[in-house]
Structure formats: structure tokens, C-alpha cells
Predict the structure of Acetate kinase.
Amino acid sequence: MKVLVLNCGSSSLKYQIINMENETLLAKGVAERIGIEGSFVKHEPVDKDKTVIEVALHNHKEAIKVVLDALQDKDHGVVSTLDEINAVGHRVVHAGEKFSGSVMITQEVIDALEECSDLAPLHNPPNLMGIYACQEILAEVPMVGVFDTAFHQTMPKSSYLYALPYELYEKYKIRRYGFHGTSHKYVAIKTAELLEKPLETLKLVTCHLGNGASMAAVMNGKSIDTTMGFTPLEGLAMGTRCGDLDPAIISYIMEKEGLDINAVNNIMNKKSGVLGISGVSSDFRDIENAAAQDNERAQVALEIFYKRVTKYIGAYAAEMGGLDAVVFTAGLGENSDTARKEICKTLAFMGANIDDSKNDNLRGKEAIISTDDSTVKIVLMPTNEELMIARETKALIS
């Protein structure tokens, strides 16, 4: 079975095609600047030359057509005909409370996703564009929706409800949803395999740390709490997002700066986080370099980020009544030995001691990086959301 995985953004389309008989990646790529001048598709087949296709892409349907042509190309293709594509797995950001797991895409599902669009106005509409395009181009191919929010639907009310009037939840579904669920689920499963223990017996804190960052308390294989909330703005300080703050600050900034709510939302989502504190960049690599050159604001930005991650590890360990492993994943979690070391340096009290000889210069590899005598393991686990989507798709199609 070959599964095409699609992740549609507002002006981009990431894709992978995976042979699920042995979970082998056949090709991956990205269509950039959809609907914008200078659009192109970067196509990377495994064991063949990469290619960049410069072509006008007015919408997602045109982008998907170019991708499918590339997949069949005699020089750069990986399938002979589109009949070899057995299913399409779509990454969808927000399912609200509609779905607690992946689903076959039907008209009923599409209608439900349309209803959720006001909860994720930047993400769900382009996700739906990809679904509509595939309905036209690959009409006979079954499709599956895999939701970022689904893994966190196991949270209890005490974790997902905000202390607001209950009727606001009943009327508008204002609650914590959580995101990056596909990644948190994947690394939790893989960590159980690495530790050679049943997932259903483990208490894990999974740390998806990148430009967008979130953490989850995974107890007995289920998410019971997570840092992102009603939107991806809550929780950790991120690349450009502020994370947790006193909500009264919003009206205070509006009054003092003479801004409307849209302008303040723009500040909190795109101008805050480590970018706003450091004034250097939203890229942690740039900030680490600046901090190493004694840039005080860069140093403070990193300290704030590290401290919030450590704080949530402690909080989630207390919430679960113990901890078996802290798991690092995503761009920063997988590739920054400094970040892992700084986050874990005060965790010795709970039996988590990082081993510098195992951690130093380690990037993107499965590994236990705690000392051998640590009762709480520290794990580096590369994420693979596309493979998780393909697995979910295969399971439903089968």
C-alpha cells in the first residue's frame, strides 16, 4: 500500500509518499508560494536527483496536479501511474470536539471541519482546500483526516476547561484543545518501544520543541494535559508566540498603544516569544549564537524558554504522580544539546540526570541520554508526523 500524505498551509503544500508495506519513504517535497508570484515545487525522490519545478501555482488544486505529475515523471517519479496511490492522508489542524481520532473523509466530516474553521482560521481553510482538490483529481482514492487535536481529546474536564462562566464553553466550545497531537502520539509510542515497556504502563512528558512548541503529559498512553490551549498561543514562550501571560495585559496594551484587538493578536502571535525578548531572531540557532557572544537579551530569552519547559515538566510529573521519562523531539528538541542540558539541569531531585557524554553533539537520533542510574529516563526521539499520518491512514483503510 502506498499512502500520499498532504499537509496544506495557506500558501504551501508539504507532501510525502510512503510505501506502507515496509514504511519506506519514496519521495517528499513542498510546493511554495501558492497563489503568489514566484511559486515552485521542490521534489525530492529517494535515490534519485532532486528537482525544482518553477511553475505558476494559482491554487492548491494546481499545486497537487504538479506534485502528482512529479510523482509519475520518468526521471524523478516513484510511481508508474496514479493507480499505485492507494490512499491519501490529510493533516488537519483542528477538529474541535467533533473527532477523538482519525476518520475517513466523508461529506459529514467535511461539514464538521467547515464548522471548526473559526477555531483555526489560519489552518483549517487550507487543509480543506487540499481535501477539495483531491476529491476532484483523485476522486476514487479514499482519504483520511488525521487531526492535531485528536490525541488530546482524552484530557479530563479538569484539564481542558478554563475557569470562565460555563455557558461560554457550552455556547462557543471555549476550552483547551491542544495541538501537535500527532507528534506527541508518535514519540510516546516510539519511546515505549525504546524503553521496552508497554506504553500503557508509562508516565511520560513529551516535549515538542521548535519554533512552535508544546508539551504533553502522557499517562498510560493517553494525553491528560498539554500546554497549548484554545489556540496554539498558550503555553511555552515560542519563536514568535508569547505563551502564558496575564490576560489583563491585552487590554492594557490596547489602551496604552491605541491598538485594536487584531493588532494585539498580531503582536502576541508574530512579534513576541524569543524574538520579542531577544530582538535577534525567532530561530533558536541565531539566539544561541548571540547568547554565546554575550548578548544579554538573547541569554534572557533562552533562560525564559528553558525555565518554562522545566516548570511544566515538574508540574506534569506532580499531576501524574510520578514520571518515567522526559522525551525531547522536534527541531530544537532533537538538535540542540545545549537546550536539553539547560532544561534538565535542575531535574536531578526527581532522579533525572542528563549524561553529557551521551547528550553532547547528538542530533536527530533515537537515544537515551540520561545516566545509567537515572530513575527517570531522558530520551531524544525524532518525530515523524508524516509516518504517523500514513499509519493512521493505513489502519482505517485496512
